């Protein structure tokens, strides 16, 4: 059992509850609230200094991981030189379930957090390097903005179906700068059919394609306009909304481009980034996200723990003599890492004209398929293989080779 004084904190948004302990079940005082303000944090530090003076031991600070709420508190105490332990909520929840009565109060939770810490062994939450923190924040914001961008595209398409139904047959990429520029200038079949042919060609010229390509696209636009059956009621308001969505899409594209450039900028501060990029299937965006979520590979004593952190390890269900053989993945740990690994795996197993992008992953995937595994199960198994490959590459600091 750990024998150190502890400051146990139950974190909330702007006001938390703390409890001080000299040792296991040796509370110094009743749990007390404090604000997340410089003055209250300073007073909390004074209490820690007094506790250290009384016990002769430097206190540890213990709290639950609560997303963004716990980050400033963690950083504050780390900067002050205290050992900070951040508990997984699953661990404190397990302790809570032991209670016969269903009680949920902040003071009780503060005591419970300390109890979980004293009865177990935990690893100190090490400060993360600044460039990894910058990268992690950017990657997560990129994912969020990308989700918004996808939603905007869907809404844009629903309006376009009313205004200019056949327009999407002309451009392979409906939200490309050229397609959006043409649509903003000629937002309806009537606008295309009323325009001079040379006006349409001039609108296509910024794409810097050949004259033949401009002529072909002009013919396709005119044909699409003739074959479209738009919803002619509320047409003006729909055109107005369509142009608003075009502006929004262009703005979101610029934001995503800017964030992505910053992601690469911060990723290049790490020697692990080129190692990740050496793996076939791991692109720019997936490499930065994987790096941001893993951080220092030394945090994981084994590949198995890295797999568990990603949440693609199989859950286990056994009861008596029954042992389930159809278990889903745990989906615990980092959802951002899980998504990036899945995307990299799908890219890696893809087969191209020149052969598979990542022969090792492709062979492993096909072996699982030949064993009778469903496609999704085979992909998850291959994603597991991909993570173990990443663990080996980052641990050895050697780039990918066919023998990995």
- Shape call: elongated
- Radius of gyration over alpha carbons? 28 Å
Give the number of helices. 16
Q: Please report the total strand number as a whole number.
A: 10
Order of helices and strands: EEEEHEHEHHHHHHHHHHHEEHEEHH
CATH topology of the largest domain: Helix Hairpins
Low-confidence stretches: 97-104, 316-325
Architecture (CATH level 2) name of the largest domain: Orthogonal Bundle
Structural class, by secondary structure, is: alpha+beta
Mean pLDDT: 89
Query: Describe the biggest sheet?
Result: 6 strands, mixed
Cα-to-Cα separation, first versus last residue = 42 Å
- In total, the number of domains comes to 3
Percent helix, as a range, is 55-70%
Strand content: 5-15%
CATH class of the largest domain: Mainly Alpha
Account of the protein in words:
It is a single chain. With 404 residues, this protein is of the alpha+beta class. It has 3 domains: 6-127, Ribonuclease H-like superfamily/Ribonuclease H (Nucleotidyltransferase, domain 5, 2-Layer Sandwich), CATH 3.30.420; 132-267, Helix Hairpins; 272-396, no CATH class. It contains 16 helices and 10 strands. α5 packs antiparallel against α10, α5 crosses α12 (284-294) and α14 packs across α16 (375-396). The chain is elongated. One of its GO terms (molecular function) is DNA binding. It comes from Desulfitobacterium metallireducens DSM 15288. This is Transposase IS116. Residues 275-350 form the Transposase IS116/IS110/IS902 C-terminal domain.
């Amino acid at each position: 059992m750990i024998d150190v004084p502890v400051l146990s904190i139950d974190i909330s948004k702007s006001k938390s509850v703390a409890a001080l302990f000299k040792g296991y079940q040796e509370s110094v005082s009743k749990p007390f609230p404090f604000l997340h303000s410089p003055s209250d944090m300073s007073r909390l530090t004074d209490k820690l200094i007094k506790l250290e003076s009384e016990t002769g031991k430097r206190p540890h600070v213990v709290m639950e991981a609560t997303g963004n709420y716990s980050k400033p508190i963690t950083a504050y105490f780390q900067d002050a030189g205290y050992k900070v332990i951040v508990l997984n909520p699953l661990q404190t929840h397990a302790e809570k379930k032991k209670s016969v009565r269903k009680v949920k109060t902040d003071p009780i939770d503060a005591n419970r957090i300390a109890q979980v810490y004293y009865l177990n062994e935990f690893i100190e939450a090490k400060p993360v390097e600044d460039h990894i923190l910058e990268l992690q924040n950017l990657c997560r914001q990129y994912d969020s903005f990308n989700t918004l961008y996808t939603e905007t595209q869907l809404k844009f398409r629903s309006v376009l179906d009313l205004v200019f139904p056949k327009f999407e047959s002309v451009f392979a990429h409906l939200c490309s700068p050229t397609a959006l520029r043409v649509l903003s200038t000629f937002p309806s079949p009537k606008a295309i059919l009323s325009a001079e042919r040379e006006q349409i060609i001039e609108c296509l010229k910024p794409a810097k394609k050949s004259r033949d390509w401009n002529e072909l696209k002009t013919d396709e636009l005119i044909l699409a306009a003739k074959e479209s059956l738009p919803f002619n009621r509320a047409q003006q308001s729909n055109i107005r909304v369509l142009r608003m969505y075009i502006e929004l899409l262009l703005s979101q594209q610029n934001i995503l481009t800017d964030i992505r450039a910053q992601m690469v900028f911060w990723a290049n501060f790490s020697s692990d980034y080129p190692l990740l990029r050496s793996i076939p299937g791991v692109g720019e965006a997936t490499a930065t996200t994987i790096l941001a979520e893993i951080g220092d590979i030394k945090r994981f004593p084994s590949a198995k723990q890295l797999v568990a952190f990603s949440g693609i390890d199989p859950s286990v269900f056994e009861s008596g003599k029954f042992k389930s053989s159809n278990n889903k993945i745990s989906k615990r740990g980092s959802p951002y890492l899980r998504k990036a690994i899945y995307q990299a795996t799908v890219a890696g197993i893809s087969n191209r004209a020149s052969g598979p992008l990542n022969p090792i992953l492709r062979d492993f995937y096909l072996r699982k398929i030949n064993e009778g595994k469903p496609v999704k199960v085979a992909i998850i198994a291959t994603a597991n293989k991909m993570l173990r490959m990443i663990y080996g590459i980052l641990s050895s600091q050697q780039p990918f080779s066919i023998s990995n």
